Amino acid sequence: MSARDRILAKLKANAPATAGELPDVAAWYAAHRSEESNADKAKRFRHFIELAHAEVYAVSRGGWLQKLYEVLSAKQIDKLLVAPGTPHGARAQAELPPLGIACPGYDAPIEGWKAAMFNETPASFTAARGAIAETGTLILWPTADEPRLMSLVPPVHIVLLDAASIYNTFYEAMQTEGWKDGLPTNSLLISGPSKTADIQQTLAYGAHGPKELIVLMIEENI
Amino acid sequence: MNAPQTPHALHFMPSAGFRARARDVVENPFLRQSFRGAMDFLMSKRAAQFPDPEELESLRSLGERIRQYNLAKLPELLETLETNLTRNGIKVHWAETPEEANAIILGICQKHSARLMVKGKSMVSEEIELNHAAEAAGIGALESDMGEYIVQLAGEKPSHIIMPAIHKTKEQIAKLFHENVPGVEYTDNVDALIQIGRQVLREKFEIADIGLSGVNFAVAETGTLCLVENEGNGRMCTTAPPVHIAITGIEKIVEKLEHVPPLLSLLTRSATGQNISTYFNMISRPRQPGEKDGPGEVHLVLLDNGRSQAYADEQLRKTLQCIRCGACMNHCPVYTRIGGHAYGTTYPGPIGKIISPHMLGLEATAGLTTASSLCGACGEVCPVKIPIPELLIRLREEAFSEPHANPAMRGQGAGHNGLTSAIWRAWGTIYGSPAIYRSFSWLASRFRWLTPRKQAGWTSVRTPMQPAPKRLRDLIKERN
Description:
The complex is a heterodimer of chains A (222) and B (480). With 222 residues, chain A is α/β, with parallel strands linked by helices. Chain A has helices at residues 3-14, 25-32, 38-51, 64-74, 87-95, 114-119, 170-176, and strands spanning 55-59, 123-127, 130-132, 137-140, 156-162, 166-167, 186-190, 195-196, 204-205, 212-218. Chain A has a single domain (36-218), classed as NagB/RpiA/CoA transferase-like (Rossmann fold, 3-Layer(aba) Sandwich), CATH 3.40.50. Chain A has seven helices and ten strands. In chain A, the strands form three sheets. Chain A has a four-stranded parallel beta sheet, with helices on both faces. In chain A, strands 6-3-4-7 form a four-stranded mixed beta sheet. Chain A has a two-stranded antiparallel sheet with strand order 8-9. The N and C termini of chain A lie far apart (66 Å). Chain B has 480 residues and is of the alpha/beta class. Chain B folds into three domains: 25-308, NagB/RpiA/CoA transferase-like (Rossmann fold), CATH 3.40.50.10420; 320-400, no CATH class; 418-479, no CATH class. Helices cover 49% and strands 10% of the residues of chain B. Chain B contains 22 helices and ten strands. A six-stranded parallel beta sheet of chain B has the order 1-10-7-4-2-3, sandwiched between helices. In chain B, helix 16 (349-360) packs parallel to helix 19. The longest helix of chain B has 21 residues, at 29-49. Classes of the chains: A alpha/beta (222), B alpha/beta (480). Chains A and B meet through helix 1, helix 2, helix 6, helix 7 and strand 7 of A and helix 2, helix 3, helix 4, helix 8 and helix 10 of B.
């Protein structure tokens, strides 16, 4: 017998006859989390992610590029990694270089340029798929066009978020979007810049991931 | 039944000598201060996350229900998980013992001629002492969680499952970095120290051949591995190297994706008082055609190591509900005073006392079950309502009762002592009968002068006990 068969045999010999009803997760959320307006969700999202040291700027649907430029200039960043296969990445790549910001695209497998990613990429720009108000959390589903390391390796990560896609809770997000029927290779919840309190419980930012997280939040009334 | 297995023994930290190690810590004011301060900090952070007692209680009940439901279906869910992970392209391995788990992991490393493995925080990898096995096989195993990196540099083990270096002061860490990291000047500025760690480890993430991680929840229906972390090193280990190996205990499975949000909320709020961790990383596949990063190979090692023994008994099975938040140790008056190393086990504190006997056998852990005042704080804060005090009492019975046939646990009766048993039996007889008790107490007060001045462990730090000259019943009689 293999280790697998021995482990399963031991467990099966001793498993209870029944597991009972499926836990009612929906009922708990219905009783404890109320619906909120889009404006309230945006406000709560902002409150919590700012508590976690992220910067949030409200922008208009057309005006985010200007804010992106201002943020980069203020931080004296002249190079931004973008995803050219996405509409926002393509726009950044078209419009920022004339303003003096180089926009290399993540268009080749990482094996060919890992050293440059780790050592010569000060900032990156991606979109968020949505967000969660309850915890101030961005939802990212990296894709072939906008790969995983973009939101991890560069010290500054700038994220474009549509405030209309903010959910109340993580539970609501996964239920509404039917995540169980199709998760991508990697899905992420990001709730601030990288941090640690491993030395004497003293909070320090920029442990291994981005030191700064900046959210450009598209709101309709701007 | 299967032949009894030889219990796994931890090589790096022998489990014997618990009392001696505990005494050392109690006599060390610096360590006591470190732990006291850290535990007060974590307790107040947790309390602030649960302002509404009704919400907390109902969420704990839901968490308990989810864990019990999933444990009841465990064998079926393990098979579903395996099927779905395999369908997704993740290779599943099974290990009954730490030795088997190490052999599987090192086998994968050797297949890829790996020289360096970067590790995200994984207590199961501590449980199997992977770093030592890797070193013996000539493979570098580097911890990348800041706390784990610090304790590895110091040649120690984590003293807390969530905050591994909680026993160290920043000055000690400053000295450690200065002496062990080439070119580093002494600084006890925490931000500067973290940046030193960041620099050292970034180079390693870039060149590592293998990334190793633990798992917080494995979702059976989708075939997804979920990881909770703040630093980003977990994401680095699972994204940057060409191969990712995850290792988990067989109990960390949930059937439904919708079981994750309540457990995640309980976990981060109970552990560090955060409403959510910085990163929640859900991995369902290796790199797909066209994707530009992520490991091309993903493996999951499922480890038993005594868990199936706990599973076999309805009461002991509750031990496996644990989601490893560490709240029980943060609230434990014993852990706060003796720290994590004194236990001599991978998992310290209350959860360590109830899970370690299944991993190491009661022969090595009988003493741990007594290191509790049974104050009940651990059970009260447990986010999935594990009745830890009840389990401690059960384990004391298992450890100290007379050895019998078909025990529920390896090492049953290991702490049994004929003299102690006889004394308790006599106590039971005396206190069970009013007539005998009256005669005994009368004799005790008459012959109190016979009480020895030295009373084993008691008088080493206390004045000797002596029966009162007059019994309570006599005093009451006099008053009336």
